[in-house]
């Protein structure tokens, strides 16, 4: 799932070398923390959060297919 988020983020930003996703377990939930360059933060979040919501929707679909729960945190 981490690779999915990284791939999507790298395709959206101007500086793909600054994209980093980490995966952590909290109880029964996988938390994916996404870090990008400050200049690219707006591209990841999108207008009114639409892009971030779309990434979360895709992540939710993949995790549900695997009978798991995952959330995305965008770190500044």
Set down the secondary structure blueprint.
Elements (H helix, E strand, L loop, with lengths): L1 H11 L7 E7 L2 E7 L5 H5 L4 H16 L3 E7 L1
Parallel strand pairs: 2-3
Antiparallel strand pairs: 1-2
Quick take:
The chain is an alpha+beta fold and 76 residues long. The chain has a single domain, classed as 2-Layer Sandwich (GMP Synthetase, Chain A, domain 3), CATH 3.30.300.20. The protein contains 3 helices and 3 strands.
Distinctive features:
single chain, 76 residues, alpha+beta, GMP Synthetase, Chain A, domain 3, 3-stranded mixed β-sheet, 3 helices, 3 strands
The end-to-end distance, rounded to whole angstroms, is 20 Å
Helix content: 40-55%
What structural category characterises the helix and strand content?
Answer: alpha+beta
Number of E-state strands: 3
Strand order of the largest sheet: 1-2-3
Largest sheet: 3 strands, mixed
Mean pLDDT: 94
Number of domains as seen in the coordinates: 1
Q: Quote the CATH topology.
A: GMP Synthetase, Chain A, domain 3
H/E element sequence: HEEHHE
What is the architecture at the second tier of CATH?
2-Layer Sandwich
CATH homologous group name: K homology (KH) domain
Q: What form results from the Cα inertia axes?
A: globular
Report Rg.
12 Å
Count helical runs: 3
CATH class group: Alpha Beta
- Unreliable sequence segments: none
Range of strand content: 25-35%
């Amino acid at each position: 799932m981490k690779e999915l988020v990284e791939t999507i983020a790298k395709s959206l930003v101007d500086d793909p070398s600054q994209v980093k996703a980490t995966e952590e377990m909290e109880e029964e939930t996988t938390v994916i923390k996404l870090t990008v360059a400050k200049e690219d933060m707006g591209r990841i979040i999108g207008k009114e959060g639409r892009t971030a919501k779309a990434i979360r929707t895709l992540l939710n679909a993949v995790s549900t297919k695997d009978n798991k729960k995952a959330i995305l945190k965008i770190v500044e």
